[in-house]
Write a structure and sequence with these properties.
The protein is an alpha/beta fold and 354 residues long. It is 41% helix and 10% strand. The strands form two sheets. An eight-stranded parallel β-sheet has the order 9-8-7-6-3-2-1-10. The chain has a two-stranded antiparallel ribbon with strand order 4-5. Strand 8 (236-240), helix 10 and strand 9 (275-277) form a beta-alpha-beta unit. Helix 6 crosses helix 8, helix 10 (258-269) packs parallel to helix 12 and helix 12 crosses helix 13 (318-332). The model is unreliable at 1-7 and 9-13 (pLDDT under 50).
């Protein structure tokens, strides 16, 4: 208890440039979380709605187990959209089509083609398919889609290829169809996120479960989609994978790596928008780092939004723990206040487009 009080006292001395936001608000804008529940009366949903309205989090991500009933799902997204948050909350989902589509026939919506199936269409046909998807999301008050997947289909044993999540092993084909995805969503004022930087198509293994090494399989071709898609839309973000590649960083996986994000992504692609972590509750991260390390390393690496699904081992105090971990990092001098300011400014600029 004494340690917590000491940290809180020291926080008062942290020099954050004075403008519209206070420290808690800035930290809150860097957090997106999931929840347990499938209707507006669910304890988990009430919890995240309150956190949104108190500006403790930037937004909420929905998974398929949150969408058991279409009517209840729409009530939840509507409640978030019409919340009393200072800025519009991110109402996020994973909707690639195919294997990854949280809204689908089973819960009252429509199924869409996988990336592999899309690659057999013309560009106009692909745009039409994705416009219909984006329109459906917009009507459901979703404003952030963690897609398209721009990984290359270079390894038949990879989870990307096995689940038909890649358009092609040819980066030019990937760019061609991903661009239709992005443009269709932009037309519906929905933010997209190209993923999983720097590329998840070459290694065998699943970062949901544990450590995956791409050192021997990664090639420069996997960077190509990011070079050509980074500035396609102002409603564009980049999601970082948890892959390890010692050719880029000998110590940390991509999502915790300054070398990967600030030195590689920002420099190579000139991308100046919002960068989002893949789910930090995945085994590749949670099994190898504690929360303080995860939060501090992610922010130091240059990521702007920290994504936690918080579902399988739900922790109702997770948001408070993240907030305290960031403040502790500031006190320790391990997190620079400029990192928070830069993230806040990028996030608010993006939200003003909604």
């Amino acid at each position: 208890m004494k340690k917590i009080i000491l940290i809180l006292v020291m926080i008062l001395s942290i020099q954050i440039p004075l403008f519209a936001a206070d420290l808690n608000e800035m930290i809150g804008q860097m957090i997106i979380v999931g929840f347990v529940g499938d209707n507006v009366k669910s304890k988990g949903f009430k919890e995240v709605l309150k956190q949104v309205e108190n500006n403790e989090i930037s937004g909420v991500i929905f998974f398929e187990d949150n969408i058991k009933n279409k009517e209840e799902f729409l009530k939840m997204t509507s409640a978030l959209k019409n919340s009393k948050a200072k800025y519009p909350p991110f109402i996020a989902i994973d909707m690639e089509g195919g294997y990854v589509q949280r809204m689908n026939k089973n819960n009252g919506f429509k199924n869409f083609k996988s990336a592999k199936q899309i690659s057999k269409l013309t560009e106009d046909e692909a745009y039409k398919e994705y416009f219909e998807m984006a329109k459906m999301l917009k009507e459901a008050d979703i404003n952030l889609n963690f897609a398209p997947c721009v990984d290359l289909a270079v390894n038949k044993e990879s989870i990307i290829e096995q689940k038909e999540r890649s358009y092609s092993n040819d980066p030019k084909v990937v760019v061609k169809y991903a661009k239709q995805f992005i443009k269709a969503h932009e037309k519906n004022n929905i933010i997209t996120s190209i993923k999983h930087f720097p590329g998840h198509g070459s290694p065998t293994g699943d970062t949901h479960l544990g450590f995956v090494d791409a050192t021997k399989t990664y090639s420069d071709n996997e960077l190509y989609p990011y070079l050509y898609l980074a500035d396609v839309s102002p409603l564009q973000t980049v999601m970082i994978s948890h892959l390890y590649n010692k050719n880029i960083d000998k110590k940390y996986p991509a999502s915790l790596s300054y070398q990967t994000i600030e030195k590689f992504l920002r420099v190579q692609t000139n991308f100046d928008g919002v960068i989002i972590t893949d789910d930090l509750d995945m085994g590749a991260i949670r099994k190898n780092y504690d929360l303080y390390e995860i939060v501090s390393l992610s922010i130091n690496a240059g990521e702007n939004i920290l994504l936690f699904s918080n579902r399988f081992e739900h922790d109702k105090k997770l948001v408070d723990k993240i907030n305290l971990a960031i403040k502790r990092g500031l006190v320790d001098g391990y997190i620079l206040s400029d990192n928070l300011v830069n993230s806040y400014e990028r996030i608010i600029k993006l939200k003003k487009c909604l």
